[in-house]
Amino acid sequence: MFPKSGNRFGVESMRKKGIHMNWTAIGSLSDIPRRGARCVATPRGKIAVFRTADDKVFAIDDHCPHKGGPLSQGIVHGAAVTCPLHNWVISLETGKALGADEGAVRTIPVKVEGERLFIALEALASRAA
Amino acid sequence: MTEKLVIIGNGMAPGRMLEHLLEKAPGRYAVTIFNAEPRVNYDRIMLSPVLSGEKDYEEIIIHGDGWYIKHGITLYKGHKIVAIDRTAKTVTSDHGVTEPYDKLVIATGSVPFIIPVPGHNLPGVLTYRDLDDVRAMMLAAQSRAKAVVIGGGLLGLEAAAGLNAQGMDVTVLHVMPTLMERQLDPAAGYLLQRAVEERGIKVITKANTQAITGNGKVEQVELADGTIIPATLVVMAVGIRPNAALAKDAGIAVNRGIVVDAGMRSNDPDIYALGECAEVNGMVYGLVAPLYEMARVTASQLAGDETAAFVHSDTPTKLKVTGIELFSLGDFADGDDRQEIVLRDASAGVYKRLVLKDDRIIGTVLYGETADGAWFNDLKKKQTDISEMRDTLIFGQSYQGGAPLDPMAAVAALPDDAEICGCNGVCKSKITGAITAKGLTSLDDVRAHTKASASCGSCTGLVEKLMVLTLGDTYNPAAVQPMCSCTTLGHDEVRRLIKAKGLKTIPAVMQELEWKTSCGCAKCRPALNYYLVCDWPNEYADDYQSRFINERVHANIQKDGTYSVVPRMWGGVTNSSELRAIADVVDKFEIPMVKVTGGQRIDMLGIRKEDLPAVWADLGQAGFVSGHAYAKGLRTVKTCVGSDWCRFGTQDSTGFGVRIEKFMWGSWTPAKVKMAVSGCPRNCAEATCKDVGVICVESGYEIHFAGAAGLDIKGTEVLGLVKTEDEALEHIVALTQMYREQARYLERIYKWAKRIGIAEVKRQIMDDTSKRKAYYDRFVFSQKFAQVDPWSERVSGKDKHEFRPMASVGFAEAAE
Ligand SMILES: Cc1cc2nc3c(=O)[nH]c(=O)nc-3n(C[C@H](O)[C@H](O)[C@H](O)COP(=O)(O)OP(=O)(O)OC[C@H]3O[C@@H](n4cnc5c(N)ncnc54)[C@H](O)[C@@H]3O)c2cc1C
Ligand code: SF4
Ligand code: SF4
Ligand code: FES
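^ thats the input. predicted complex w/ FE2/S2 (inorganic) cluster below
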């Protein structure tokens, strides 16, 4: 799993695989409340950007693997969010449903540079493909 | 292409079948269920603990409404199928719904047998089969009068014990010389009778019921020998018959039950039958273990495995009457080729008998001490040759190793494949394996993952012992149910410690009470937030990130992620300018759905989150404030038109309702609170199923509480009668504050009141003036901080981030 550094670890491994990334600025850390989330609108649907209690930042599709509930509206605890519609718990690190439920949502690489937040939109492009 | 699977009946057998099917062939079928009973699938076996008051209905639900939603299954509740058209391949319900099927499963269960004596159809004669029967019995029991149970078998005795626990004077009539003669030999039947009689239940054996008589309702039962037993309630529990009439009418082969092959298929290849209505290899069944086996087979067949076949096995019988231990298995009739081993211990009330044939156990009756049941069952099932241990066999497993074992060691010594849960056929290693592999720590977890002890519950003790063996001291069965997996403390303990230690923030609670997670979970955080809001109204800063989305954005989230908005209409009263303002908002924001709610106000649905502040701004202009339709807080106060208009009205019920609502709005409560005020006992505002209700009468105000009209239906309890409106308000406010301070988060008033006792609530609110005043004052104080309209706050900019995307990034920009 990704210990301290949020999705940055995942980014590294993608780099190693030689996938090219384009980082797009989406705002600053203080735009998101701790243990909360904000949405980023994209042509391919909303992305939910989460900030945990210890200031780790994660981005996943705002679309619960169960019935499409808006995960950005859920309660954030640890590195997970509970979907507001039927209480599935989704890991922010892996995008996978935790506990007895099964399903996964796409994670999007995020980078925190000082206060600035970036997401990797190449991942979006590949989603279209 | 998905095939259409239609199921008739929603009992325990098809419920289990669906679980298997969803696992084996998810998505293969579009499933529709018709159930004559107007409810979801619940654990029928556990009706007896509901009747005796040891459990609530919600505790025995197997699949809640959410389960059907989650799996996309359509359930028609209260629809009885009246015809199957095998040529057109459709079924039709009594409400006129016709549904086509590719595959049909008939699971109509059994119907209780009714002895056709004169008077069998008088009001007051009940059977014992479903929740309605239990509710009717509980209602009848309120009279604490006399009841007669006809039938001294498993069901009859459980009914008798339940009615006895509810305070009725019960007589059991049994036609045979000893009780439960099909499962017990006469010696054990005798011991059982003594134990039943010791609880104050009368037993008459060899009783031949001749007639039930009474004037318009049951008054007495007459026996053939002339004995007359007075009774206001008669429960017939004399056996069941497979419910196969529907199949028979459709021309499907029916003998005692619906005839099916070992693959549970009837003579129509597209129609299966399972459960108590099915007859397989000439046998019909009335215990869940074989029905669950049928469920497994049917699911496999439907998933395409044509080799799956039903195999008969004996199921042990246990009586679920607290304090009576009995276990019966297999065949225990006498016979020349059989030997028996008997143990009697009169002082301890123990009787054990093993029936052997060719050095193998074929039957077992245990009374008074049943711990070895699992072991004997295992020996029988495996056909173990017992000649080596014959002398000590009856003393049980603990004696076999030489020194007696303690019960824990006996469980430890059980072989891995020993059956622990008879209902669900779960063996020891499956339970211990799941505990280790999945890291299970609570009985509920074990039930969820293995089903062990999830049906009749009589193996709970064994399962808990296995948990102790596997988990060591970390498992403590006697401990209170923790709030969630972040803590070992229960809700009550946490509430007490918050006060005692003066904890005023969520991090403080988590630090001081040694939370196991860094920032809690979606279960504990909203609860803690509420407890702190309630206990420290002037000091605690509400933690919005610990509130459920609805309470965070002050609107109700809908399935598509849009929101609905319900403004307050005080007491359900409105006027033309309010309605006009609503109409304008609906037009301006193109709101797709406008609906009148059950709480006498107007709901606007399908509003985009971004539009919420603007919608509220417009509504605010017209004087509207939030209706808190989303809140664990005061929702609505429903009223009737009362003495201002109604010719029966005794008081100004409308005015009083508006007054209550204006006084109490904005308060947060453990769960939602709905109220109503009716102007007279005709009760047009339906006050007697509300959390708090008022019935106005000539002499004043009758205050009611603890009603329910949701998943549960329950009439209110009367708190008391007061003379003036001011007094009524004071009592209602004090009651609400008592509830706010004591209840567990998400516990409705009726559950809280049941837990602490109706009498206790009355004592503190009606009788103890100083307590009542103190509660009232604390409520009034907390309202100073709570009565802020959340909508206007947000129109003025609070929590702006909630309603706007953080950024919008276009695809072109992304590609650069
Ligand atoms: C009080 C009590 C205690 C029990 N204790 C035990 C025990 O300790 N151990 C044990 O193993 N078993 C016990 N049983 C037996 C066990 O509950 C049953 O064997 C089991 O529930 C039967 O399941 P089923 O699915 O076949 O039928 P049911 O659970 O009876 O379900 C049949 C359903 O079909 C519906 N239905 C019928 N006709 C139609 C129609 N035409 N259209 C639509 N719906 C229809 C009925 O309304 C009913 O809900 C007990 C039973 C009772 C009543
Ligand atoms: S509005 Fe209520 S009754 Fe209707 S579907 Fe939703 S939860 Fe069920
Ligand atoms: S409850 Fe009584 S007073 Fe109120 S509308 Fe009905 S009949 Fe009239
Ligand atoms: S949509 Fe997320 S839990 Fe159902």
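Chain A has one domain: 11-128.
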